[in-house]
Write a structure and sequence with these properties.
Blueprint lengths: L1 E3 L3 H11 L5 H19 L5 E8 L2 E8 L3 E7 L6 H7 L4 E2 L2 E5 L6 E6 L9 E5 L2 E2 L3 H13 L3 E5 L2 E2 L1 H10 L4 E4 L1 E2 L2 E2 L5 E2 L5 H6 L4
Parallel strand pairs: 1-12, 4-5, 4-6, 4-8, 8-10, 9-11, 10-12, 11-13
Antiparallel strand pairs: 2-3, 6-7, 14-15
Helix pairs in contact: 1-2, 2-3
Length: about 210
């Protein structure tokens, strides 16, 4: 299912993020802030276990996360989204998958995978600021499914309709949480109007 945030602060910060004059430092800060909002929305249905906790005035009923959660940033742009979620869920595991898009074929190329032989989490949040063609997201979810992850969600900032459709067709059970779905892809596979290359804008690596 697709979840497109309607939060006013998400819309405001996304506008700042898009602006061509936003420098890398502010861009990274905005990615972090947007990820916090979207992460809150994406984790509202995590399962809980009932617990009792001692307080200075006696026992109180409480809740504890029941699931083991993994963050899977797609290198390199997804790295900018990790710390925002670690602040709120410090016990998560972080696993890295390296994907880059061949600019001629627009197909994903895997170059890094350090997952252990057996899965160690129940739920994974795949992190990538842009869901463009959907190729990298589909390749990542394929790896995670083979690894044995029961539940997977995609968390991004901006999506193209083509990428949303491709991921939903490949994996209907993967929820997609984004700030906005833009108009379309252009002929070189970039989201329009989008914000350009999210990795370059985060890390200042412009050609």
């Amino acid at each position: 299912m697709l979840f497109e945030s309607q939060h006013p602060l998400v819309k405001h910060k996304l506008t700042l993020l898009r602006h061509v004059d936003t420098k890398p430092k502010q861009f990274r800060e905005l990615v972090r802030e947007l990820t916090q909002f979207l992460g809150y929305e994406a984790t509202q249905d995590l399962s809980l276990a009932d617990v009792q906790v001692p307080t200075p005035m006696g026992e109180a009923p409480g809740h504890a996360l029941q699931q083991k959660i993994g963050l899977v940033p797609i290198l390199r742009a997804g790295l900018g989204m990790v710390d925002a979620l670690l602040e709120h869920i410090p016990a998560v595991q972080v696993w890295h998958l390296g994907m880059y898009r061949d600019e001629e074929t627009l197909e994903p190329v895997s170059y890094y995978n350090k997952l252990p032989p057996q899965t160690t989490v129940d739920t994974c949040l795949v992190l990538d600021p842009m869901l463009a063609t959907g190729g990298s997201a589909i390749a990542t979810v394929t790896v995670l499914k083979r690894w044995g992850v029961k539940r997977i969600k995609f968390l991004g900032l901006i999506a193209a309709p083509e990428g949303v459709e491709a991921l939903q067709n490949a994996f209907p059970g993967v929820d997609i949480h984004v700030a906005v779905v833009d108009e379309r892809l252009n002929d070189i596979g970039f989201i329009v109007p989008g914000l350009g290359d999210a990795g370059d804008r985060q890390f200042g690596t412009f050609a």
